[in-house]
Structure formats: structure tokens, C-alpha cells
Amino acid sequence: MAKGGQRKKGEEHARGSKSSLLRLAFEAYEAGDVVMARRAAHRVLSEKEPASDAEARELAKSLFAPGKEKEKPTAKEVAEEILSRTEVPRKAYLFAAIAAAIILLMLALAAFRS
Question: How many Å apart are CA 30 and CA 3, to the nearest integer?
Fold first, then answer.
């Protein structure tokens, strides 16, 4: 049974400095935790004061491919890149809708034949 007072790992980390939010987003992205990466990236983008650009440049070295690196990426650019990489492709929703329509059609045909 879960305790009501427990906090998620990201929420505890997010209460620290602003630059740690960007690092949290990047580490979550690298670990495959898409939800936490998107949450932290949204928080970085919604802040009034930008996070440290020095940390953004450090993270951007491993985020952007060689040759496609930006000269001086800002924290907001890194956060936007994380958001764009973790977005679910629209084709996935289209294929799911088509599959659901086919299943419903098959159920309807089975119901009418019996």
C-alpha cells in the first residue's frame, strides 16, 4: 500500500535549482522515462527566468548529433528538443483508430450474421 506523503522522484528533484530541471529532463529522456522528461521540459519552458545556458550547452553536446549541433543552445532550445523527441507520432493514433474501426466492423458483421 502506498503512503500518501510520498513524492515522486522528479518532484523532489524539481524543487532544487532551475538548472536541475533541465538536467532532470535530460536524464529522464536518456533513461527512457518519457513522461518525466516531458514534465520537466514543460517546467523549464514555463519558467520566467531561463535556466543556465552553460548547462544547456553541456547537455546539448550529447543530445544533438555531430554536425547538427547549435553553436550556443539555450535551455529553452534543449527543452524544446526533448519535447519534440518524446512526442508521440500522429501516425500511431491514425493506425490505432483504423484498427479500432476494423474491429468494430468485424463485431458488427458477426452480430448481424448470427
Answer: 28
Residue 73 domain boundaries: 9-87
For residue 12, what are the CA distances in angstroms to 6, 9, 39, 50, 85? Answer: 10, 5, 13, 20, 24
What does each of the 114 residues of the chain score in pLDDT, given as a tens digit?
556 555 555 555 545 555 578 889 889 999 999 999 999 989 988 887 766 777 777 788 777 766 666 677 888 888 888 899 899 899 999 999 999 999 999 999 999 997
Distance, in Å, from the CA atom of 45 to the CA atom of 100, rounded to the nearest integer, reads 36
Any domain includes 2: no
Provide the number of structural domains found in the chain.
Answer: 1
HSE (side-chain half, CA atoms, 13 Å) at 94: 3
